[in-house]
Design goal:
CATH superfamily of the largest domain: Reverse transcriptase/Diguanylate cyclase domain
Pfam families: HTH_30
Strand content: 15-25%
Protein name: Fis-type helix-turn-helix domain protein
Order of helices and strands: HEEEEEHHHEHEEHEHEHHHHHHH
Organism: Caloramator australicus RC3
CATH topology of the largest domain: Alpha-Beta Plaits
Domain PucR C-terminal helix-turn-helix: 244-296
Shape: elongated
InterPro entries: CdaR-like_regulators, Homeodomain-like_sf, PucR_C-HTH_dom, PucR_C-HTH_sf
CATH class of the largest domain: Alpha Beta
Helix content: 40-55%
CATH architecture of the largest domain: 2-Layer Sandwich
DNA sequence: AGTGATAAGATGGTCCCGCC
DNA sequence: GGCGGGACCATCTTATCACT
Protein backbone atom coordinates (compact mmCIF):
# COMPACT_ATOMS: atom_id res chain seq x y z
CA UNK A 1 0.00 0.00 0.00
CA UNK A 2 1.29 3.44 -0.95
CA UNK A 3 0.73 6.68 0.93
CA UNK A 4 -2.00 7.70 -1.56
CA UNK A 5 -3.79 4.33 -1.19
CA UNK A 6 -3.77 4.67 2.59
CA UNK A 7 -5.05 8.26 2.45
CA UNK A 8 -7.72 7.32 -0.08
CA UNK A 9 -8.97 4.62 2.31
CA UNK A 10 -9.00 7.05 5.23
CA UNK A 11 -10.67 10.03 3.50
CA UNK A 12 -12.73 8.37 0.79
CA UNK A 13 -11.43 10.88 -1.81
CA UNK A 14 -9.20 10.16 -4.80
CA UNK A 15 -5.62 11.26 -4.19
CA UNK A 16 -2.71 12.16 -6.45
CA UNK A 17 0.84 13.04 -5.43
CA UNK A 18 2.79 15.21 -7.88
CA UNK A 19 6.25 16.67 -8.02
CA UNK A 20 6.70 20.41 -8.33
CA UNK A 21 6.65 20.16 -12.15
CA UNK A 22 3.27 18.43 -12.18
CA UNK A 23 4.54 14.88 -12.81
CA UNK A 24 2.42 12.25 -11.07
CA UNK A 25 4.54 10.33 -8.53
CA UNK A 26 1.86 8.03 -7.14
CA UNK A 27 -1.91 7.69 -6.78
CA UNK A 28 -4.49 8.79 -9.35
CA UNK A 29 -3.95 11.49 -11.95
CA UNK A 30 -6.77 13.83 -10.84
CA UNK A 31 -5.13 17.11 -11.73
CA UNK A 32 -2.33 19.32 -10.49
CA UNK A 33 -2.06 22.89 -9.30
CA UNK A 34 1.11 24.62 -8.16
CA UNK A 35 0.28 26.20 -4.78
CA UNK A 36 2.48 27.66 -2.04
CA UNK A 37 0.57 26.44 1.00
CA UNK A 38 -2.92 25.02 1.03
CA UNK A 39 -5.77 25.75 -1.39
CA UNK A 40 -9.21 24.44 -0.48
CA UNK A 41 -12.07 24.19 -2.99
CA UNK A 42 -13.85 21.36 -4.81
CA UNK A 43 -10.32 20.01 -5.06
CA UNK A 44 -7.81 20.49 -2.25
CA UNK A 45 -4.14 21.12 -3.06
CA UNK A 46 -1.48 20.91 -0.35
CA UNK A 47 2.16 21.86 -0.83
CA UNK A 48 4.43 19.57 1.21
CA UNK A 49 8.10 20.28 0.55
CA UNK A 50 8.75 19.59 -3.14
CA UNK A 51 5.43 17.79 -3.52
CA UNK A 52 1.89 18.82 -4.33
CA UNK A 53 -0.84 16.59 -2.94
CA UNK A 54 -4.09 16.77 -4.93
CA UNK A 55 -7.27 15.61 -3.19
CA UNK A 56 -10.54 15.27 -5.12
CA UNK A 57 -12.69 16.72 -2.34
CA UNK A 58 -13.06 19.61 0.08
CA UNK A 59 -11.05 19.27 3.31
CA UNK A 60 -11.03 21.51 6.38
CA UNK A 61 -7.88 23.44 7.33
CA UNK A 62 -7.37 21.10 10.32
CA UNK A 63 -7.70 18.03 8.11
CA UNK A 64 -5.12 19.49 5.73
CA UNK A 65 -2.67 19.98 8.60
CA UNK A 66 -3.25 16.40 9.73
CA UNK A 67 -2.60 15.16 6.19
CA UNK A 68 0.71 17.09 6.15
CA UNK A 69 1.65 15.52 9.48
CA UNK A 70 0.69 12.05 8.27
CA UNK A 71 2.69 12.56 5.07
CA UNK A 72 5.90 13.36 6.96
CA UNK A 73 5.36 10.43 9.32
CA UNK A 74 4.67 8.04 6.38
CA UNK A 75 7.63 9.14 4.29
CA UNK A 76 9.99 8.84 7.26
CA UNK A 77 8.77 5.31 7.85
CA UNK A 78 9.22 4.55 4.15
CA UNK A 79 12.74 5.94 4.24
CA UNK A 80 13.49 3.73 7.23
CA UNK A 81 12.30 0.68 5.27
CA UNK A 82 14.55 1.55 2.34
CA UNK A 83 17.53 1.88 4.65
CA UNK A 84 17.03 -1.66 5.93
CA UNK A 85 19.85 -4.12 5.14
CA UNK A 86 19.58 -6.49 2.20
CA UNK A 87 18.59 -9.42 4.41
CA UNK A 88 15.54 -7.51 5.68
CA UNK A 89 14.53 -6.54 2.15
CA UNK A 90 14.82 -10.10 0.80
CA UNK A 91 12.96 -11.70 3.67
CA UNK A 92 10.21 -9.15 4.27
CA UNK A 93 7.35 -7.67 2.33
CA UNK A 94 8.84 -4.33 1.31
CA UNK A 95 6.77 -2.51 -1.29
CA UNK A 96 8.12 -2.21 -4.82
CA UNK A 97 7.94 1.59 -4.85
CA UNK A 98 10.28 1.77 -1.88
CA UNK A 99 12.93 -0.37 -3.58
CA UNK A 100 13.13 1.33 -6.96
CA UNK A 101 16.66 2.59 -7.52
CA UNK A 102 18.13 0.67 -4.60
CA UNK A 103 20.94 -1.74 -5.59
CA UNK A 104 20.99 -0.20 -9.08
CA UNK A 105 23.00 -2.29 -11.63
CA UNK A 106 23.41 -5.17 -9.14
CA UNK A 107 22.26 -8.69 -10.00
CA UNK A 108 21.18 -11.47 -7.66
CA UNK A 109 22.47 -15.02 -7.94
CA UNK A 110 21.00 -17.78 -5.82
CA UNK A 111 23.22 -20.71 -4.93
CA UNK A 112 21.03 -23.67 -4.00
CA UNK A 113 23.30 -25.70 -1.75
CA UNK A 114 23.68 -26.62 1.96
CA UNK A 115 24.15 -23.58 4.21
CA UNK A 116 27.45 -24.98 5.47
CA UNK A 117 29.04 -23.65 2.26
CA UNK A 118 28.16 -20.06 3.24
CA UNK A 119 31.63 -19.41 4.68
CA UNK A 120 33.32 -20.71 1.53
CA UNK A 121 31.24 -18.37 -0.62
CA UNK A 122 32.04 -15.55 1.80
CA UNK A 123 35.76 -16.20 1.41
CA UNK A 124 35.42 -16.34 -2.39
CA UNK A 125 33.90 -12.85 -2.37
CA UNK A 126 36.14 -11.48 0.36
CA UNK A 127 37.43 -8.11 -0.88
CA UNK A 128 34.77 -7.79 -3.58
CA UNK A 129 31.74 -5.54 -3.40
CA UNK A 130 29.21 -8.28 -2.80
CA UNK A 131 26.52 -9.01 -0.22
CA UNK A 132 25.59 -12.53 0.84
CA UNK A 133 22.33 -13.57 2.50
CA UNK A 134 21.34 -17.12 3.40
CA UNK A 135 17.92 -18.70 3.69
CA UNK A 136 16.70 -22.27 4.29
CA UNK A 137 17.65 -23.63 0.88
CA UNK A 138 20.65 -21.63 -0.18
CA UNK A 139 22.52 -18.39 -0.44
CA UNK A 140 21.81 -15.14 -2.28
CA UNK A 141 24.75 -13.22 -3.71
CA UNK A 142 24.10 -9.63 -4.75
CA UNK A 143 26.75 -7.84 -6.79
CA UNK A 144 27.51 -6.34 -10.18
CA UNK A 145 27.92 -9.25 -12.56
CA UNK A 146 29.39 -8.96 -16.06
CA UNK A 147 29.17 -12.54 -17.22
CA UNK A 148 26.81 -14.69 -15.18
CA UNK A 149 27.71 -18.03 -16.80
CA UNK A 150 31.45 -17.52 -16.32
CA UNK A 151 31.00 -16.43 -12.71
CA UNK A 152 28.58 -19.26 -11.90
CA UNK A 153 30.91 -21.83 -13.51
CA UNK A 154 33.76 -20.73 -11.26
CA UNK A 155 31.54 -20.84 -8.14
CA UNK A 156 30.39 -24.32 -9.14
CA UNK A 157 33.99 -25.40 -9.59
CA UNK A 158 35.08 -24.00 -6.21
CA UNK A 159 32.15 -25.61 -4.39
CA UNK A 160 32.83 -28.95 -6.08
CA UNK A 161 36.42 -28.82 -4.87
CA UNK A 162 35.04 -28.34 -1.37
CA UNK A 163 32.94 -31.46 -1.78
CA UNK A 164 29.61 -29.88 -2.64
CA UNK A 165 27.39 -31.95 -4.94
CA UNK A 166 24.09 -31.13 -6.58
CA UNK A 167 24.60 -27.37 -6.59
CA UNK A 168 22.14 -25.37 -8.67
CA UNK A 169 22.88 -21.72 -9.44
CA UNK A 170 20.15 -19.37 -10.61
CA UNK A 171 20.26 -15.75 -11.64
CA UNK A 172 17.80 -12.91 -11.79
CA UNK A 173 18.26 -9.84 -13.96
CA UNK A 174 20.18 -6.64 -13.37
CA UNK A 175 18.41 -4.07 -11.17
CA UNK A 176 17.26 -1.08 -13.22
CA UNK A 177 14.12 1.00 -13.72
CA UNK A 178 11.10 -0.71 -12.18
CA UNK A 179 13.00 -3.98 -11.81
CA UNK A 180 14.04 -4.10 -8.15
CA UNK A 181 16.53 -6.07 -6.10
CA UNK A 182 13.60 -8.06 -4.74
CA UNK A 183 12.47 -9.00 -8.27
CA UNK A 184 16.01 -10.06 -9.09
CA UNK A 185 16.26 -12.19 -5.93
CA UNK A 186 12.89 -13.87 -6.52
CA UNK A 187 13.83 -14.60 -10.12
CA UNK A 188 17.19 -16.05 -9.08
CA UNK A 189 15.66 -18.47 -6.59
CA UNK A 190 12.74 -19.29 -8.90
CA UNK A 191 15.23 -20.29 -11.62
CA UNK A 192 16.74 -22.79 -9.20
CA UNK A 193 13.38 -24.17 -8.09
CA UNK A 194 12.18 -24.56 -11.68
CA UNK A 195 15.40 -26.32 -12.65
CA UNK A 196 14.99 -28.65 -9.71
CA UNK A 197 11.39 -29.44 -10.68
CA UNK A 198 12.51 -30.08 -14.24
CA UNK A 199 14.76 -32.82 -12.91
CA UNK A 200 18.12 -31.06 -12.93
CA UNK A 201 20.19 -31.59 -9.80
CA UNK A 202 23.08 -29.41 -10.91
CA UNK A 203 23.70 -26.58 -13.32
CA UNK A 204 23.41 -22.92 -14.12
CA UNK A 205 20.07 -21.34 -14.95
CA UNK A 206 19.29 -17.71 -15.82
CA UNK A 207 15.71 -16.50 -15.49
CA UNK A 208 15.83 -15.23 -19.09
CA UNK A 209 16.03 -18.85 -20.26
CA UNK A 210 13.48 -20.17 -17.79
CA UNK A 211 10.55 -17.97 -18.80
CA UNK A 212 8.65 -20.74 -20.59
CA UNK A 213 8.94 -23.05 -17.60
CA UNK A 214 7.92 -20.25 -15.23
CA UNK A 215 4.77 -19.64 -17.25
CA UNK A 216 3.97 -23.36 -17.30
CA UNK A 217 4.64 -23.72 -13.60
CA UNK A 218 2.53 -20.74 -12.59
CA UNK A 219 -0.12 -21.37 -15.24
CA UNK A 220 -3.69 -22.41 -14.66
CA UNK A 221 -3.85 -26.23 -14.85
CA UNK A 222 -7.38 -26.13 -16.26
CA UNK A 223 -6.19 -24.07 -19.21
CA UNK A 224 -3.14 -26.28 -19.72
CA UNK A 225 -5.42 -29.33 -19.67
CA UNK A 226 -7.59 -27.66 -22.31
CA UNK A 227 -4.62 -27.62 -24.69
CA UNK A 228 -3.42 -31.09 -23.74
CA UNK A 229 -6.87 -32.62 -23.98
CA UNK A 230 -7.18 -35.34 -26.60
CA UNK A 231 -3.50 -35.50 -27.49
CA UNK A 232 -0.05 -36.20 -26.16
CA UNK A 233 -1.03 -39.40 -24.28
CA UNK A 234 1.72 -41.20 -26.21
CA UNK A 235 4.27 -38.78 -24.78
CA UNK A 236 4.14 -40.76 -21.55
CA UNK A 237 5.87 -43.64 -23.33
CA UNK A 238 8.79 -41.32 -24.08
CA UNK A 239 8.55 -39.55 -20.71
CA UNK A 240 8.99 -42.86 -18.88
CA UNK A 241 11.85 -44.01 -21.11
CA UNK A 242 15.00 -42.55 -19.54
CA UNK A 243 17.09 -43.44 -22.58
CA UNK A 244 14.84 -41.59 -25.02
CA UNK A 245 14.47 -38.57 -22.73
CA UNK A 246 18.25 -38.34 -22.25
CA UNK A 247 18.73 -38.65 -25.99
CA UNK A 248 16.31 -35.78 -26.65
CA UNK A 249 17.79 -33.62 -23.88
CA UNK A 250 21.32 -34.07 -25.22
CA UNK A 251 20.15 -33.19 -28.73
CA UNK A 252 18.62 -29.98 -27.35
CA UNK A 253 21.78 -29.20 -25.40
CA UNK A 254 23.71 -29.54 -28.69
CA UNK A 255 21.33 -27.14 -30.43
CA UNK A 256 19.85 -29.92 -32.59
CA UNK A 257 23.27 -30.87 -33.98
CA UNK A 258 23.01 -34.64 -34.54
CA UNK A 259 26.73 -35.31 -34.88
CA UNK A 260 27.66 -33.32 -31.77
CA UNK A 261 24.92 -34.98 -29.72
CA UNK A 262 25.93 -38.46 -30.82
CA UNK A 263 29.54 -37.76 -29.86
CA UNK A 264 28.47 -36.57 -26.42
CA UNK A 265 26.21 -39.57 -25.95
CA UNK A 266 29.00 -41.95 -27.13
CA UNK A 267 26.63 -43.23 -29.79
CA UNK A 268 26.95 -43.69 -33.50
CA UNK A 269 25.19 -40.89 -35.32
CA UNK A 270 22.81 -43.35 -36.95
CA UNK A 271 21.93 -44.81 -33.57
CA UNK A 272 20.90 -41.35 -32.44
CA UNK A 273 18.89 -40.92 -35.65
CA UNK A 274 17.22 -44.22 -35.00
CA UNK A 275 16.16 -43.07 -31.52
CA UNK A 276 14.93 -39.77 -32.89
CA UNK A 277 12.85 -41.72 -35.42
CA UNK A 278 11.51 -43.79 -32.53
CA UNK A 279 10.44 -40.62 -30.70
CA UNK A 280 8.78 -39.48 -33.92
CA UNK A 281 6.94 -42.80 -34.26
CA UNK A 282 5.60 -42.46 -30.70
CA UNK A 283 4.86 -38.74 -30.53
CA UNK A 284 4.50 -37.72 -34.16
CA UNK A 285 7.13 -35.01 -33.61
CA UNK A 286 10.39 -34.82 -35.50
CA UNK A 287 12.63 -33.25 -32.86
CA UNK A 288 15.33 -32.55 -35.43
CA UNK A 289 13.08 -29.67 -36.50
CA UNK A 290 13.16 -26.59 -34.29
CA UNK A 291 9.39 -26.01 -34.13
CA UNK A 292 8.62 -29.62 -33.26
CA UNK A 293 11.48 -29.77 -30.76
CA UNK A 294 9.92 -26.78 -28.98
CA UNK A 295 6.54 -28.52 -28.79
CA UNK A 296 8.15 -31.74 -27.57
CA UNK A 297 10.12 -29.96 -24.87
CA UNK A 298 7.12 -27.92 -23.78
CA UNK A 299 4.89 -30.97 -23.35
CA UNK A 300 7.58 -32.91 -21.50
CA UNK A 301 8.14 -29.87 -19.25
CA UNK A 302 4.43 -29.74 -18.46
CA UNK A 303 4.60 -33.38 -17.40
CA UNK A 304 7.60 -32.63 -15.20
CA UNK A 305 6.27 -29.41 -13.66
CA UNK A 306 2.58 -30.16 -13.38
CA UNK A 307 2.09 -33.88 -13.07
CA UNK A 308 4.61 -34.77 -10.38
C1' DA B 1 31.98 -31.06 -41.47
C1' DG B 2 27.45 -32.44 -41.69
C1' DT B 3 23.57 -35.14 -43.72
C1' DG B 4 20.74 -38.91 -45.83
C1' DA B 5 20.39 -43.51 -47.42
C1' DT B 6 21.47 -48.18 -47.30
C1' DA B 7 23.50 -52.47 -45.96
C1' DA B 8 25.42 -55.36 -42.60
C1' DG B 9 26.39 -56.92 -37.92
C1' DA B 10 25.01 -57.59 -32.93
C1' DT B 11 21.69 -58.58 -29.59
C1' DG B 12 17.64 -60.30 -27.40
C1' DG B 13 13.11 -62.56 -27.45
C1' DT B 14 10.12 -66.26 -29.04
C1' DC B 15 8.98 -70.54 -30.89
C1' DC B 16 9.72 -75.30 -32.15
C1' DC B 17 11.80 -79.69 -31.59
C1' DG B 18 14.25 -83.42 -29.53
C1' DC B 19 16.05 -85.47 -25.44
C1' DC B 20 15.90 -86.78 -20.50
C1' DG C 1 6.83 -81.44 -17.75
C1' DG C 2 11.36 -79.38 -17.83
C1' DC C 3 15.47 -78.17 -20.17
C1' DG C 4 18.76 -77.02 -23.88
C1' DG C 5 19.87 -76.07 -28.77
C1' DG C 6 18.80 -74.06 -33.04
C1' DA C 7 16.07 -71.24 -36.26
C1' DC C 8 13.81 -67.14 -36.98
C1' DC C 9 12.54 -62.41 -36.40
C1' DA C 10 12.48 -57.72 -34.60
C1' DT C 11 15.13 -54.29 -32.72
C1' DC C 12 19.15 -51.76 -32.22
C1' DT C 13 23.85 -50.33 -33.58
C1' DT C 14 27.53 -49.55 -36.75
C1' DA C 15 29.98 -48.91 -41.28
C1' DT C 16 30.17 -46.94 -45.62
C1' DC C 17 29.31 -43.96 -49.42
C1' DA C 18 27.57 -40.10 -52.05
C1' DC C 19 26.23 -35.58 -51.73
C1' DT C 20 26.00 -30.60 -50.14
Amino acid sequence: MSFCDDLHLALGYEIGLYDINGNLKEGKDIGFKDVDGIEIGDFTFIRIGDNILSIKGKLSQDACNLVKLYFSFYKNKEAADVLQPLEYILKNDVSKEKLIGKFLNKTTMYIMCPIKYFNILESIYDGYEAELVKDDEGIYIVKEIENFEEEAESILEELKQEGANNVIIGSGRQVKGDYTIKNSAIHAKTSCLLAKNLGYNEGIFHIDKMILYGIISEGDMAKIDFYLNGGYENFYDVYRDKELINTAEELFRCHLNISEASRRLYLHRNTLLYRIEKIKAITGLDIKKFEEAVVFRTVISIFKLKRK
